[in-house]
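Incident review: delayed structure delivery

Summary: a single-chain prediction request sat in the queue longer than the usual turnaround. Root cause was a stuck worker, restarted by the on-call engineer. No data loss occurred. The affected request and its eventual output are reproduced below so the record is complete for anyone auditing the incident later.

Affected input:
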Amino acid sequence: MKLFLNAHATHPDWRMALALATAQLQAQLGRDDHIDTPTLGWVYLSDHYAAHAERLLDELRAQWPGVAWVGSVGVGIAANGVEYFDEPALSLMLGDIAPAHFRVFSGAQPLSAPPLFAAVTAQVHADPAAHDAAELIGELASQTRSGPLYLFGGLASARNRRLHIAHDVLQGGLSGVAFDASVPMISRVTQGCQPVGKVRRITDTERNLVLTLDGEPALDCLLRDMSADALEPREALQRLRGVLVGLSDAGDAPVRGGSFGSETRVRNVVGVDPNRRGVAVAELVEPGMQLAFCQRNTEAARRDLVRICTEIREELEPEALALQTALELRGDDIDSAPHPARQIAGALYVSCAGRGGPHFGSPSAELALVRHALGDVPLVGFFASGEIAHRHLYGYTGVLTVFTAGTSNPTASR
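Output delivered after worker restart:
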């Protein structure tokens, strides 16, 4: 299979950054192992370029006629092994997926509008200012005629214009690109938090206020899990700073092997009610849902990121490559041998704006982990205000999606 075209650049002037990236893309066009007729493009801009998004998109259209563009703005953007935070930069990728097998959509061009398109997966970008973003995501996931739609993507993040791109520069609502079953991909969610207590069932609520867990006051459960139940109030409140909750629907498996599973959505604790002994969280909750108190944990995030990359490698890597993988881990030369990376045409990575190098310990550390695991493959993405996977809006997670050759149906590769 052939690799997608991929480029990234940083420069105070967006025109210079685009020129640098274009030169990289043009240099790849003549290579036998890269595509030569792009049809779909991804563009991610740091918010330093947000004011110039329309002009930049016009330039991309002029340089690559016939290419459909999707993307977003972010406080940080991602490339293969590199992340750009708080600096002017852009990241581009061009694929050659046949136009009959994808459809770009937005509020002005809904996915449900005729003609019929049999979507099974969709990449979604959305405006975090939309108060009903989670509801819109859920509606999109369930609106297709061929069954539930598997979603992946994220909410735009910016200190100025929180925009997303689908043919045009957009604000508000959501947009993206949908794919039919002939576009093989694998998508995984990586968590960044560690449970600090057991999973309990929510038994009484009032909107976003959790009143009881397994019939016990929620605040009492929280204080006990944080070993703060014997402390005086001021010390107890200090101990509770940084506490989050992991929520999952009834029947899901929220914890696996001591870590959160992909079904768990991490939300902030936004307050406590000492009188009713309740805990307020940043999501509407209902009796029957499951909850575990948690905290951000760098080592847990690192382990889980390695886990999802390993799962992708194992799905792509035939048994015949087992010895070769062992040689790679010892640092031996693999240039002349088959490699699982060569089953990946391109990759998309959306991570929480609170992750990245600062959370993983050094600049570009998160993307370096992905590159070490997957190899030197084309990759673009951004750091989001919320991550989208399955049918939910997540937080403090990463969503890694790879376009592959000969993999299983993407809705089963989660």
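Verification: The longest helix spans residues 298-316.
Action items: add queue-age alerting; document worker restart procedure.
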